[in-house]
């Protein structure tokens, strides 16, 4: 795998070639990844995968016209032809008054900080096989587990580099480790499946195979013999496995491109008290070892910690340069880049913990729903209407009771935000983290 400096050299070379070929401005992004994964099933080796890939993307501007191309072929001749094609495409593209690189005066300057994203490890197939076997064994050891879809362990290394024609050049690398298990409990038509997993940049931060496997097995067994949910408006609790999705819907609604297109249900509500005044949702792009940590965004702007929600209100939109120009605002360092035009993305997000434990939040709930799994994508970004298939457990007499399945939970995100109460069980395990959430008044329907 290339070093970060070598990756940056490739991006800079392509960017320079574009301006020499007639582009007024350009940026180039180089990404490479090497990954190894091992899957064990029923104690036997089922699959070993090794993948190595690289991709370089070029975006050029000719006046207010732009085009983007990408390739995995690093042959010098092919790259030269890629540059020529991209510049020619840009000359024929329609004009876009908002097109262009990020403002030069806002670019990240100085040395790229070390966010401790790479532990320097290399893939060890024997160790991965041992870990995959251990996580599956731990899951299968749970009483009631009858079959397995497998235990998996993986290792990856990545390099990312971005260069622009107006003075930005930066790159960084990361490592990745993950463990997962998926098992089945019960027999015949009564079988239930569940899983558990964990990912980390450093192997020393990865949860143990014993704990991940045991959790997967316990979850599958707990789902056996599900009943039906009641119909009506009830308090709904979202387990931390799924509660981060509520934060994700908020982010989609405050993304600059959605605001610029007029397709967000939060347009006109930016000054409203959307949440309880105690609610804080924070983005921390430079958290050491964070799963989505990054020192600069996809356009070369510096990243910084920010409260997305504070005092119950959103603190502004998340903007890349194009949406910022369209809205007459300043980009916020949230641009993301793939193979073409930039988009908007946050990094390490969390909804701050509340003051009560989940048990305390449930106390006094005569009948409610505890959701552990959501199915489908039933969210309307324009209206905020929310309807998702779900499974989980009944809450009776203030405690979690029997499993239930094949029901829907519905509401409107504006109403859900206003009613949201967080528990105190926040744990930083994923890129987006939230504690158990209680939302009263949601509509529950069972077939």
From TrEMBL:
<dbReference type="InterPro" id="IPR045569">
    <property type="entry name" value="Metalloprtase-TldD/E_C"/>
</dbReference>
<comment type="similarity">
    <text>Belongs to the peptidase U62 family.</text>
</comment>
<dbReference type="InterPro" id="IPR002510">
    <property type="entry name" value="Metalloprtase-TldD/E_N"/>
</dbReference>
<feature type="domain" description="Metalloprotease TldD/E C-terminal">
    <location>
        <begin position="232"/>
        <end position="445"/>
    </location>
</feature>
<dbReference type="Pfam" id="PF19289">
    <property type="entry name" value="PmbA_TldD_3rd"/>
</dbReference>
<dbReference type="InterPro" id="IPR036059">
    <property type="entry name" value="TldD/PmbA_sf"/>
</dbReference>
<dbReference type="InterPro" id="IPR047657">
    <property type="entry name" value="PmbA"/>
</dbReference>
<feature type="domain" description="Metalloprotease TldD/E N-terminal">
    <location>
        <begin position="36"/>
        <end position="90"/>
    </location>
</feature>
<dbReference type="GO" id="GO:0006508">
    <property type="term" value="P:proteolysis"/>
</dbReference>
<dbReference type="GO" id="GO:0005829">
    <property type="term" value="C:cytosol"/>
</dbReference>
<feature type="domain" description="Metalloprotease TldD/E central">
    <location>
        <begin position="121"/>
        <end position="224"/>
    </location>
</feature>
<protein>
    <recommendedName>
        <fullName>Peptidase U62, modulator of DNA gyrase</fullName>
    </recommendedName>
</protein>
<dbReference type="InterPro" id="IPR035068">
    <property type="entry name" value="TldD/PmbA_N"/>
</dbReference>
<dbReference type="Pfam" id="PF01523">
    <property type="entry name" value="PmbA_TldD_1st"/>
</dbReference>
<dbReference type="Pfam" id="PF19290">
    <property type="entry name" value="PmbA_TldD_2nd"/>
</dbReference>
<dbReference type="GO" id="GO:0008237">
    <property type="term" value="F:metallopeptidase activity"/>
</dbReference>
<dbReference type="InterPro" id="IPR045570">
    <property type="entry name" value="Metalloprtase-TldD/E_cen_dom"/>
</dbReference>
């Amino acid at each position: 795998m290339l070093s970060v400096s070598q990756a940056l050299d490739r991006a800079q070379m392509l960017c320079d070639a574009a301006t020499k070929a007639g582009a007024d401005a350009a940026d180039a992004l180089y990404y490479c990844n090497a990954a190894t994964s091992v899957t064990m099933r029923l104690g036997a080796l089922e699959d070993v995968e090794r993948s190595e890939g690289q991709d370089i993307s070029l975006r050029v501007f000719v006046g207010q016209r732009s085009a983007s191309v990408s390739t995995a072929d690093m042959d010098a001749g092919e790259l030269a032809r890629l540059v020529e094609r991209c510049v020619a495409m840009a000359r024929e593209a329609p004009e876009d008054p908002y097109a262009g690189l990020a403002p030069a005066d806002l670019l990240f300057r100085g040395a790229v900080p070390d966010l401790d994203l790479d532990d320097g490890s290399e893939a060890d197939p024997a160790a991965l096989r041992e870990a995959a076997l251990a996580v599956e064994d731990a899951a299968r050891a749970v009483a009631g587990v009858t079959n397995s879809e497998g235990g998996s362990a993986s290792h990856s290394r990545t390099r990312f580099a971005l260069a622009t024609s107006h003075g930005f050049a930066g790159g960084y690398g990361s490592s990745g480790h993950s463990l997962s298990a998926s098992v089945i409990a019960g027999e015949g038509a009564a079988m239930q499946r569940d899983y558990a997993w964990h990912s980390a940049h450093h192997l020393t931060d990865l949860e143990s195979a014993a704990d991940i496997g045991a959790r997967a097995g316990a979850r599958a067994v707990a789902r056996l013999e599900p009943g039906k949910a009641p119909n009506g408006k009830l308090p709904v609790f979202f387990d931390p496995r799924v509660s981060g999705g509520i934060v994700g819907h908020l982010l989609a609604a405050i993304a600059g491109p959605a605001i610029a297109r007029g397709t967000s249900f939060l347009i006109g509500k930016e000054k409203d008290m959307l949440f309880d005044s105690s609610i804080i949702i924070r983005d921390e792009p430079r958290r050491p070892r964070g799963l989505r940590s990054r020192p600069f965004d996809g356009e070369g702007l510096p990243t910084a910690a920010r409260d997305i929600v504070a005092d119950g209100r959103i603190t502004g939109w998340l903007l890349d340069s194009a949406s910022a120009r369209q809205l007459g605002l300043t980009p916020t360092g949230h641009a993301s880049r793939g193979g073409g035009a930039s988009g908007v993305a946050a990094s390490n997000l969390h909804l701050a913990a509340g003051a009560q434990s989940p048990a305390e939040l449930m106390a006094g709930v005569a009948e409610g729903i505890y959701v552990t799994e959501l199915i489908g994508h039933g969210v309307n970004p324009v209206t905020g209407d929310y309807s998702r298939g779900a499974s989980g457990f009944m809450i009776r007499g203030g405690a979690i009771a029997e499993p239930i399945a094949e029901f829907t939970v519905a509401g409107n995100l504006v109403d859900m935000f206003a009613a949201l109460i967080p528990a105190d069980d926040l744990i930083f395990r994923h890129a987006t983290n939230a504690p158990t959430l209680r939302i009263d008044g949601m509509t529950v329907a069972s077939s």
